[in-house]
Structures are given as C-alpha cells and as structure tokens.
Write a structure and sequence with these properties.
Layout: H1 2-34, H2 41-48, H3 52-58, H4 62-87, H5 92-109, H6 112-121, H7 123-147
C-alpha cells in the first residue's frame, strides 16, 4: 500500500513538474518575443489551454513566473556554453567559433522589448541577467583560451 501511495505522489509530482516546465517554456517564448508587459497571464493561460487558476497554482505572480523564465534561460545558456568549452580540446578556433555562435543565439533571444520591460519592471532580475551574461562570456572564453 505504501508503494502505491508513493507511486501516486511521484506521478503527481512528475505531472506537476511537466506542467510547470511547459508554462515556463511558453512564457519564455512569449516574454522574449513580446516583452514582459506585452504578455498577460490571460494570454498565457489561453495559449496553454489552461485556466489562470492553474498558472497561479504553479506561480504566485507574473513576477515569479518571470524569475523562473530568467532562471531557465540562464541555466540553458550556461549548460550550452559549458558543453562547448569542454567539447573541443585542442581545437581552439573551432571552440571559439562555436562559443561565439552560441553567445549570438542566446543574445538574439533577448529581444529589446523584453530587456526594456525587465529593466523597468524587474530591475533586480535585469541586473542578474547582465551580471550572469558577463560572467558566462568571461568564464567560457577563459576555458576555451586555457584549452587552446
């Protein structure tokens, strides 16, 4: 009986995790393209085919969702840059080319409306993004240079 309860809890947690990831992914796509202010929770709920109540069950506020989107973006960028920095031992030019391309792609996702809105509405998150972007560039290029 205990195993059945544990399995049920695990399925619920997995389902909740998948829903949360889906919400973050869709919010990331919309926030980056249209800005933070240009997307409402109603818009997201409609796009996801769920109620606003479900969104708020996962995120207490639009600001909390923005923080999750930023963390997802930073985690993705860091993983991509680390993979590149570790992936080309002995081929400095190839690693540098891949690193610059990766930085370009990640920077391209951050559209001006999103950055403008974030600077106005969530300056602490904007500063976090700016700080982490500089750190990513320095750390990744340093790793590539040391290997080259």
């Amino acid at each position: 009986m205990r195993t059945a309860i544990h399995n049920k809890k695990q399925k619920v947690a997995t389902g909740e995790g998948a829903a949360r990831e889906r919400i973050v992914s869709e919010a990331r796509r919309h926030f980056m393209a249209h800005g933070f202010r240009g997307v409402t929770m109603d818009d997201l709920a409609s796009e996801l085919g769920m109620s606003k109540k479900t969104l708020y069950a996962h995120f207490a506020s639009k600001g909390a969702l923005l923080a999750a989107v930023i963390e997802d973006k930073l985690r993705t960028a860091e993983a991509d840059l680390d993979r590149i920095a570790a992936g080309y031992p002995g081929d400095f030019l190839k690693a540098l080319h891949e690193l610059l391309e990766c930085l370009r792609q990640h920077s391209e996702e951050l559209q001006p409306p999103f950055l403008r809105d974030m600077a106005r509405e969530a300056p602490e998150l904007f500063q976090l993004v700016q700080t982490r972007r500089r750190a990513f560039m320095g750390n990744s290029s340093g790793k590539v240079a040391r290997r080259g």
